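Researcher: Please translate sequence to structure tokens.
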Amino acid sequence: MTIDPTWPAYPIVSFIGFLIALVPLPWHLQAWNSGTCYYMIWTALGCLNEFVNSVLFAQSAINVAPVWCDISTRIIIGQSVGVPIASLCISRRLYNISRCSNVMVTRAEKRRIFLQDTLLCVLFPIICMVLSYIVQGHRFNIFENLGCYPAIYNTLPAYFLVYMWPILIGLVSSVYCSLSLVILFKRHAQFREFLQTGSALTVSRYYRLMALAITEILFTIPLGVYELYSNVIDGALHPWLGWNDTHFDFSVVLEIPAEVWRSNPNLLIPLEMSRWVLPICAFVFFAYFGFAEEARRHYKMVLKAVSDRFAFFRLRTASRLARRNGVLPTHAEKLSSQDVLPPYIAYPRPPAVAQLYGKDSKIATVSLGDLATTKSTFDVGLSKVPSTPSTPSTPYSAGSAFSDRGSFASLPSTPGTPSLHH
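Model: Translation complete:
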């Protein structure tokens, strides 16, 4: 058992890389940046895989999780192709935008580009995983403190089926980036106007994507070449003798102690580089996109939502404490106070017509029969009625007060009120 000098720094860094690689994912999904989204997903998946391996096999090379190692080795092969090819999709999109030929304004155009990126970033890595099984000498290897690694047989077909893809993809990406930079320098003013009027991609985000693609090329090609070189000088190149020879005794699992692989520079350097490159990619990506304007806007929205949530909990806790201390009324007290009926208010009865106009007034001598046929009688204003002590001083229209016979007949009678019927 050898103490890992990178413990616990590497598990912490790899887990942080897994988290920060996914932070800008929501707003890039909204902008339909499929290549960038797949770059984040593959980087985060690789960091998570390395985190689990570093924790599971810390100071140990015992095969405690064979099923996990089967999955982990497929992820290692997939992300070794998925990250570079996602960068290729980014470079290809930037090249199309620099030519001002791909505005992506219709949903059909967006779906077409999304389908192309999905075929490249998902289907092609899966095909590489399947092809690697052809040159897989045994089940897998376990390096102490590092975890599971694919067991690729050092034969000539392995260089074409496994090792060449990162270099080839990096070369194609470099061609797209070079063409994009040339066009950008030639038509800088036209390009800025195009981004501001016809595309959802801002000028700042375009430059950051270009910087990410260039950084990825600078990492991918040299690392791929060095991995190719280390495999050549590490051991003899075995001839391909067929499927049965390559997969003979396939269930073997090599458990390699740390003293062995750390004492061999041809193993130490490529193994350490292959596992540290993924957290570096995550931190580089976050440096480009984690502090941009759209990122800060989303951070403010999240902080506001969290602060509002905590404020709600604080208010609810404070109200509970206040009720417990008797400062605020409880729910039962509120209900008991609401069950009390309001006080009864006796409104005065409306006066009779005779009380309004007096016994000698003309309106008081009108019969109910005349009311049904002679409506104009009710339109008599108080200005034509002789003034009596009981007559209001404000002009009043009897027709406006009583609109029909029923309402007039329903007036309550009071003691001493003369009858209206003759």
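Researcher: Any highlights?
Model: The chain is about 65% helix and 5% strand.
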